[in-house]
Amino acid sequence: MSIVKLSIPKFRLRTTIVIPFVLQIIAAVSIVGYLSFRNGQHAVNVLADRLNGEISARIEQHVIGYLNKSQNTLWLTKANVLSGNLNLKDFEGMQRYFWQIVHKGNFEGYLSYGNEKGEFVGVEYQEDGTVQLKTVTSETIPQRETYALNSVGDRQKFLKSAKYDPRDRPWYKAAKQAGKTTWSEIYPFFSSKNTVMGISPVSPIFDSQGNLQGVLCINVRLTQVTDFLSHLQISANAQSFIIERTGNLVASSAIAQPFKVIGEGDNRTIERLLVTQSDNPMLKATARHLLEKFGSFAAISGSQNLKFQSSDGGWYYVQVLPIKDEMGIDWLTVVVVPENDFMGQINQNNRDTLFLCLGALIISILLGIRAAHLIARPLLQLAKASEQVAEGNLEQQIHSSAIVEIATLSHSFNHMTAQLKESFAALYQSQESLRLANEELEARVERRTAELRKEKERSEQLLLNVLPASIADRLKQTNESPAEHFEDATILFADIVGFTSLSARMEPLELVSGLNQIFSAFDQLTEKYGLEKIKTIGDAYMVVGGLPISRPDHAKAIADMALDMQAYIQNSSSLLSESIELRIGINTGAVIAGVIGIKKFIYDLWGDAVNVASRMESHGKPGYIQVTEATYQRLKGDYLLESRGPITVKGRGEMVTYWLIGKK
Questions:
Q1: What CATH number corresponds to the domain at position 645?
Q2: Nearest CA to 110 among 227, 99, 258, 142?
Q3: Angstrom distance (rounded) from CA 70 to CA 219
Q4: Mean confidence (pLDDT) of the chain
């Protein structure tokens, strides 16, 4: 019986070492490259969605904030009309009021009023920083006269006269048709040096029989929104735009003028641009994709994250976010970012990586061949000794070689076996040291976490010292706090009598210290009675009851605090080194409350009730608490009040007031 010997393939050492090594490098580079590209693509998608979402939110916040500024001004103006502070028949008084808002308030707009007779008065902030008066009176109908106003609101120079009827303007028609406060359609403002598009919050004014008297209007230029979009830093080729549900452009970062002007002079007309007919390829492609996906712009509801491929093969990330408000604004803000803005650098890095890997592969092959040639002979001896060490026999010694590198390797191997012996002995000690180090690290982390928690609590407490708790919570959650109307609240003003002369006689530090002690005591009283401190101005102190959270006993709480304030001053007359007295005024009525500004903001009140409360203080007597008829009706059952009788109040005429003496 013959024995068949199997033929085992044999390979050269250089082949055995180099080929597997090369294959591993190729496989590793391929896998890493693929995963890197895929993960990079995923990261880009996530980054693009987040970036677009943040940009869209910033645009929405800016637009709503910009429009709310005009809304709040309109509401405040209408409140003054309804309260009787602003007489619609007194055009001179209205001119002064409008000028105060436009000039003093740095209001970049056009505040105006037109009535059913065709009369008109308006004050407009110009692009060059000047302010103009435009008026149509019964004597000048139908001509509108334009005057330049000086720094105190007086007519400085006659500029021009032109035919004008407010009843034919889009803003007047919008208010008349709606019958309530609303937004006009977007229409051209020809009064500016350059034709611009704008929109107007408008509010009709009715008489007691429900007949329309006229319309209050504020022109809001949309060029400010365009400027904001054009200055947004998104990416190299990204664009953002705002459209109406009809597809008409409102503003765009790439199109400075989203409309066409046809004709010249008084014969000019405006043609709105449809985003689908834009000359900008990116805007047009994005709009057509939205129409293909949703059928119409009106069908888009809620925030949308999209990605599409245009006809030129490029991919784009799109974020669509509706912009709405309670008065009827219903727009869409769209942010478009080309994928190449994100992927360009990634693709270049992938190419660089490929070239580097190819270079490393070639070098590895050459080094592998050379290494195989040098280590072929002593390799077997080293392999056998290594097997013995792996089995636990550390008494292995490799003889030196004539090759310097192999000799070094032999020496290292011998040294390694000696070190292994020592390492096993030191292993337990090292593990114990590592455990102690981990415990120390955990303790540091816990201390740092506790410090961060204290800082957070401290920051929140600082915010609560500035704003009411409910308003602070709303700002932290939504970053906005719109003005709110409170139908019933009680306001208190207190003033230190003779403070101006007192400040001239005392050292500043002593004066401030005394004021701080007095106002700190008053602050404790607001906490005691659950009231809301609004502000202090010099020696004046303002507090309100019944907001931001309504309560039925706000008038009584204010009365109790006023009596305690009076008692405190009487018992602490030496706080400012002299005998001092308080003059206190209280009124009850409707107010508007909210946060003003975005930096160093405060929670403040507006309304006729606030003005009357201030008059009660300024028209009072030292050491007395003066209240209005409205407050008297709330307190007369539980408090001792004495009629002061009718007094003449600035801006209000004759009023009946009372002295609050104490509790029954």
A1: 3.30.70.1230
A2: 99
A3: 8
A4: 81
Say yes or no: 429 and 453 in one domain. Answer: yes
Which pLDDT score, from 0 to 100, does residue 125 have? 84
Task: Dump strand ranges (E) for 207-303.
Answer: 212-221, 239-244, 249-252, 259-262, 269-272
In terms of DSSP H, where are the helices of 100-240?
A: 170-178, 223-230
Beta carbons within 8 Å of 204's beta carbon, 6+ residues apart: 175, 176, 178, 179, 180, 181, 212, 214, 215
Closest CA to 536 of 462, 488, 602, 613: 602
Q: Examine residue 158 and state whether it is found in any structural domain, yes or no.
A: yes
* Domain membership flag for residue 533: yes
* pLDDT above 50 for 367: yes
- Nearest-5° angle of CA 173, CA 174, CA 176? 65
CA-wise closest residue to 68 among 329, 406, 277: 329
**Which long-range contacts (C-beta less than 8 Å, at least 24 apart) are formed by 548-553?**
548/468, 548/470, 548/471, 548/484, 548/593, 548/603, 549/470, 550/486, 550/488
Rg (CA), the chain: 40
Residue 612 domain-assigned (yes or no): yes
Are β-strands 625-627 and 582-596 bridged in parallel, bridged antiparallel, or unpaired?
parallel
Which residue do the tokens 């199997």 mark? 6
Say if residue 412 is in the same domain as residue 538.
Answer: no
How far is 221 from 127, CA to CA, in rounded Å?
10
Same domain, 535 and 653: yes
Can you list the positions of beta strands (E) in 484-537? 484-496, 532-537
Residue 561 has pLDDT above 90, yes or no: yes
**Whole-number Å distance between alpha carbons of 227 and 206:** 37
Q: Which tens digit of pLDDT belongs to each residue from 437-469?
A: 678 777 777 777 677 677 656 655 555 555 565
pLDDT band at 1 (very low <50, low <70, confident <90, very high): very low
Unique residue bearing structure tokens 């990330």: 317
The percentage of the chain sitting over the pLDDT mark of 90, rounded to a whole number, equals 28
- Establish if 585 belongs to a structural domain: yes
* pLDDT higher than 80, residue 662: yes
Listed in sequence order, the residues at least 6 apart from 14 whose beta carbon sits closer than 8 Å to its beta carbon are: 368, 369, 372, 373
Neighbours of 659 (CB within 10 A): 15
Query: 132, 142 in Cβ contact below 8 A?
Result: no
Domain that holds residue 462: 394-466
In the prediction, which pLDDT does 611 show?
Answer: 93
For residues 436 and 509, state if they share a domain. no
CB atoms within 10 A of CB 548: 19
